[in-house]
Amino acid sequence: MKYFILFGPPGAGKGTQAGAMVERYNLCHLSTGELLRAEISSKTPLGLQAKSLIEAGNLVPDSVVEGMIESKFHETKGVDGFLLDGFPRTITQAQSLDEMLSKVSESVTGCISIMIPDSLIHERIAHRAHIEGRADDARAEVVQNRIVTYHAKTEPLIDFYRKAGKYYEIDGTGTIDEVRERIFTAMDKL
Ligand code: AP5
Ligand code: MG
Asked: Which residues constitute the domain of residue 41?
């Protein structure tokens, strides 16, 4: 099985590129953001717990997303691997992913990192706010907090995967097609 991490700041294009990636490599797309938004709209206890954190642009507790990912690993059949979009997002989550995978004699295949400058994040999220109506896209201060949280808690993962020899950085600027081709060029070799 392949275990790809789809990494990048808010608005980098993770969700946009995921569809083509899962199709080409027969992967199951697991977006912790999408799973959490589904819990919120179904008003589950987990969704109620996560709602205020997400709408303020803060991370939900590590244990919450770790549990969601591990249960999806167990219940998903018929794929050649997983595309983890937005997970891990802290060093603790990365260590716990390593533990989950080592229990089944597997390991992370590669961290595909879509990089864009902070200025472009604001532009892309402002554009999406009109289309998708995501609660955490609506207010500039929440978007700013997501960016600050990304730099403080998530960016250290770049070094974590670089040291493991598993970090593949993709230039996320340019058109959607251009970014997709860069991703395929990197992933075809993995
Ligand atoms: P999540 O849903 O993961 O949000 P995010 O990381 O902030 O990333 P986005 O979904 O905003 O960006 P994206 O990279 O998918 O961009 P997209 O492709 O849509 O997480 C939401 C929240 O859930 C978190 O803040 C946190 O609270 C919680 N959470 C989730 N995972 C967690 C975890 N592991 N631990 C703890 N908490 C967690 O693109 C954006 C826009 O740009 C779109 O409109 C798109 O059309 C456009 N676009 C994309 N590419 C291009 C291009 N090349 N050119 C022009 N436009 C483009
Ligand atoms: Mg997304």
From this structure: 2-188
